Amino acid sequence: MKKTLQLAVFAAVASLAGQSALAQSVTHSPVTAGYVGDSRGIVERDSSGNCLRSSSWTKEMATANCDADLLPKMAAITPEPAPVPAAKPVMTPTVEKITLREDALFDNGKADLRAKGKAELDALAARMSDKNIALENVAITGHASAPGTNNFNQLLSERRAEAVKAYLVQKGIDPTRIFNQGMGEMQPIASNDTSEGQAQNRRVEVEIKAQRTSMSSN
């Protein structure tokens, strides 16, 4: 009799321990539609820890705490790559060298601009003032032919380069962008033994360094 009583007590203790362990392993969930709840508003569970469903339960009522396996799996969201801004075209400066004949700009042996020479410089100034280009610098170099003394030719080439610069500044070109010099007879491009060669050597060279900032609308 005593032995039977001990077994009964042991079984009761084991049952209570199992229920306690089960209660600790199950997350208490607030009751929602489709599930059976107790007086505390908590979903009741069976001995296996499964939520008790009501007779009106449908798959659409499944909750994450009770029937997570019945919920649709969330598709992995792949973020769209950030748009890559278009690379801006690299603007590289270009250099243009223009040679103006002495006889088009000046009278022989003089540094005063002729009307024809001014017309040529007007066109040149208009190109340099184009709003679609950024002017970096302008180098003006005067040259002379061999006839005459070295000193005279040097001074004449300098005066002619200065005259061209002064006219371009008058037309609106930034004087800080212009550099002028005279080379006298030191850099001939043709033979000074002929009149034709001497005519080629008497010249003013204009070297323009600029870069285009946008395309012209024309």
Task: Walk me through the topology.
Elements: H1 2-25, E1 94-101, H2 102-105, H3 115-128, E2 133-142, H4 150-170, E3 178-182, H5 195-201, E4 203-212
Parallel strand pairs: 2-3
Antiparallel strand pairs: 1-4, 2-4
Describe the protein's architecture and organization.
By secondary structure, this protein is an alpha+beta fold. The chain folds into two domains: 29-67, no CATH class; 94-212, 60s Ribosomal Protein L30, Chain: A (2-Layer Sandwich), CATH 3.30.1330.60. Helix content is 32%, strand content 15%. The chain has helices spanning 2-25, 102-105, 115-128, 150-170, 195-201, and strands at 94-101, 133-142, 178-182, 203-212. It has a four-stranded mixed beta sheet with strand order 1-4-2-3. Strand 2 (133-142), helix 4 and strand 3 form a beta-alpha-beta unit. 19% of the residues are buried.
Count of alpha and pi helical runs: 5
Strand order of the largest sheet: 1-4-2-3
- Shape, principal axes of CA atoms: rod-shaped
Largest sheet, strands/sense/barrel: 4 strands, mixed
The CATH homologous superfamily of the largest domain corresponds to OmpA-like domain
List low-confidence stretches. 4-26
Helix content: 25-40%
Number of strands: 4
Helix and strand sequence: HEHHEHEHE
- The CA-CA distance between the termini, in Å, is 117 Å
What Rg do the Cα atoms give?
49 Å
Counting helices, strands and paired strands, the structural category is alpha+beta
